[in-house]
Amino acid sequence: MPATTQPARPMEIGVGWRHPHYVALLEQQPPLDFLEVHSENFFANGGAALAVLEAGRSHYPISLHGVGLSLGSAVGVDAWHLDQLAHLVERLHPVRVSDHACFARGSFQGATVHAADLLPLPFSSEALDVLCANVAQVQDRLKRPILVENLSAYIHWKPVEDTTTWLETDFLSELSRRTGCELLVDVNNIYVNALNAQKLGLVDQPIAACKSWLESIAPVAVGEIHLAGHSHVSDTFGDIVVDDHGSLVCEAVWDLYSHAIAHFGPVPTLVEWDTDIPCLDTLVGEATRARALAQEVIRGYKL
Question: Superkingdom of this entry's organism (predicted)?
């Protein structure tokens, strides 16, 4: 669906605000539309970190992006974690609240354990039911819709005989339809998954596979886009592409971002950089490129 047929949405561009940029960003106040932070870093009731975040909020809207809700966990959402997030949301009134389509908590030897990682879900009907129930619980507690992000995954579940296995895009679309949540489409994650699938002989044309993935998602379901860098690791242990958020967005992902904006229309977009973090000017430069590219695509549809 072309951008001109979409409901009017702001073309907001933001960056992930990390500790090395706390002071520089407050001093320079670069032209950004929002800042995104990891929710779990601000769960303490007070302290220096929360003071910095509230200082940032006086200049920019804040988006809360979580990594610990474990929305796909069969043992449910941790009540303490959800309470802390709810308190933070009530305090900051963020423009968006998001987490991932993954699980991290599980039952092991009679106890609930946390893997401290974002683990992939089987795209089964049973897993979808669990994910929908947990997302609904979070939305009820926060009294607002959340966004759920597609994962970069390095391991996969084997299909179980006589059970339905969904395509990832159908799985996420059904999640949005049932719960009213929006999707956070991470374009880099899609590309990383396609490159690793190519290494396994499962995909011939990664770019074409990524475009097909994007086109399979209805524009109305998408509330935010993430962009980031990745790295190729090849050593005695294997050959893999890692979503490490530690470099410039690559040209292939920029091309896919253009394709995403052409399909979805204007969507708030975030540039993430979490490892080997550069100077603030470099990160803001990536955001500036995202804005220029999105505006170019949108203008093209209005000609």
Answer: Bacteria
pLDDT digits (tens, 9 = 90+) for 244-270: 999 999 999 999 999 999 999 999 999
Give the number of C-alpha atoms closer than 13 A to the C-alpha of residue 191, restricted to the C-beta side: 24
Q: Structure tokens of 173?
A: 């679309």
301 pLDDT above the threshold of 90: no
Kindly list the domain boundaries of the chain, sorted by start residue. Answer: 13-301
Residues belonging to the chain? 303
| Alpha carbon distance 177, 135 (integer Å) | 12
Does residue 232 carry a pLDDT above 90? Answer: yes
DSSP conformation letters of 165-181: B--HHHHHHHHHHHH-P
Question: Diameter of the chain by CA atoms?
Answer: 62
pTM of the model: 0.93
Question: What's the chain's Rg over C-alpha atoms?
Answer: 19
Q: How far apart are CA 33 and CA 250, in angstroms?
A: 23
Given a cut of 90, whether residue 123 has pLDDT beyond it is: yes
What's the rounded Cα separation, in Å, for the pair 224 and 144?
16
First to last CA, the chain: 16
Q: Give the integer Cα–Cα distance in Å for 183 and 267.
A: 11
pLDDT in tens, 22-52: 999 999 999 999 999 999 999 998 899 999 9
The pLDDT value given to residue 3: 41
Which tokens go with 39? Answer: 């929710």
Q: 9: which 2 tokens?
A: 């949405």
| Superfamily of chain region 13-301 | Divalent-metal-dependent TIM barrel enzymes (3.20.20.150)
Q: What is the pLDDT of residue 292?
A: 96
Q: Is 30 exposed, middle or buried (0-12, 13-18, 19+ CB in 10 A)?
A: middle
